Amino acid sequence: MTEPRLRIAVQKSGRLAERSLELITGAGLRAIRGANELLYRVENHPIDLLRVRDDDIPTFVDDNVAELGIVGYNVLKEHFPDKDLEEIIVMRLGFGKCTLKLAVPVNFDYQGPKSVAGKRIATSYPNILKQWLSDNGITAEVIEMRGGVEVAPRMHIADAICDLVSTGTTLEVNNLKPVELVLKSEAVLIKAPHAPQPDLAHIYDMVVRRFDGVTKSTGAKYVMMNAPRDHLDEIINLIPGSGSPTIMNLVDPSMVAVHAVCDESVFWETLDRLKAAGASAILVLPIEKMMP
Ligand code: PRP
Ligand code: ZN
Questions:
Q1: 3-state secondary structure 31-81
Q2: CB atoms within 10 A of CB 10
Q3: Taking a C-beta distance cutoff of 8 angstroms, is the pair 68, 8 a contact?
Q4: What are phi and psi of 68, to 5 degrees?
Q5: Which of 16, 41, 23 is closest to 97 using CA atoms?
Q6: Spatial contact of 73 and 185, defined as CB atoms under 8 Å apart
Q7: Is the terminal CB of the chain with fewer CB neighbours within 10 Å at N or C?
Q8: Ligand 1, pocket-test mutation among 164, 174, 175, most atoms within 8 A of CB
């Protein structure tokens, strides 16, 4: 009998593809090309990667074709506008952050959602847009497009658009300005209704635990410094996102050593402030792995 294999659906190409593979590799799963481009095998664990179009991931996972999937929250929400997504989402992955925004031509006199009432809005996210319109108590004509949404106003196909924005370049070069935040998105890990199956539970748990570790350690830093005992409170408050730092005595009784795990980036400005508060010998170290 062949050993059962856990299937993870990932985007084959596009905005999340590379970072998804980095997450998988970071979790110690060695993915190699399988029989075809659609299937990658993990050689050191009973896991296969199903490489598909992002729009297919919610369906594959919902149909139990794959036990897990890595997909943009935007795609998931558009697919299941009425589902309780918290039941499907295992964790937020912290990459692929972008927003879905309502945008209008730069010369459009926008005075709030009412300004687009009765107008034509082009989007690849009709379900999310319709929900936003109804939440705002307005009706508008939703024009569904598969791509190239940003050219719709120039082509006089639409008066406004609702599209993904990450750097904002696409809007800018098309003479459009963002006016409303419709949805915030990032990559999420989702699970199938039947997952985990008993015979795959141990491998499922391992993947989830390792993804959690990779996600938490990304951007996390280990910070060490010496601090004057009488400025300790001030210094601890300056350390970004640290839970409870470790304080150790030094030979000099007026000084202590402070060690902390920061779950946010540490900027030069923070180091300047720590220095000004009396901290010295400040070290910021990357964290390679973390098992919370
Ligand atoms: C999205 C969106 C814009 C662009 C925005 O397209 O439709 O075209 O990204 O990014 P920016 O703010 O950094 O310029 P995507 O890359 O997802 O391709 P698609 O339109 O084919 O889905
Ligand atoms: Zn897309």
A1: EEECCCCCEEEECCCCEEEEEECHHHHHHHHHCCCCCEEEEEHHHHHHHCC
A2: 24
A3: yes
A4: -130, 160
A5: 16
A6: yes
A7: N
A8: 164
CA 115 to chain centre: 31
- Enter the pTM of the model: 0.85
Inter-residue long-range contacts of 175-179, CB under 8 Å, 24+ positions, other chains counted: 175/105, 175/106, 176/103, 176/104, 176/105, 176/106, 176/150, 177/103, 177/104, 177/105, 177/106, 177/108, 177/110, 178/101, 178/102, 178/103, 179/101, 179/102, 179/103, 179/104, 179/110
- Residue minimizing CA distance to atom 6 of ligand 1: 164
- Residue of minimum CA distance from atom 8 in ligand 1: 170
Shortest-distance ligand to the CA of residue 56: 2
* Residues 54 and 72: beta-carbon distance below 8 Å: yes
Q: Block means of pLDDT (10 residues each) for the chain, length 292 residues?
A: 90 94 95 89 96 96 97 98 96 95 98 98 98 97 96 97 95 98 98 95 97 88 95 91 86 96 82 95 89 74
Q: Which atom of ligand 1 is the closest one to the Cα of 165?
A: 12
Distance CA 167, CA 148 (A): 16
Looking at the CA of 11, which ligand is closest? 2
211 membership: H or E segment, kind and range = helix 201-217
With a Cβ cut-off of 6 Å, ligand 1 is lined by 15, 147, 149-150, 163-170
* 218 C-alpha to ligand 1 centroid (Å): 25
Ligand nearest to the CA of 178: 1
Q: Give, using CA atoms, the residue closest to atom 18 of ligand 1.
A: 147
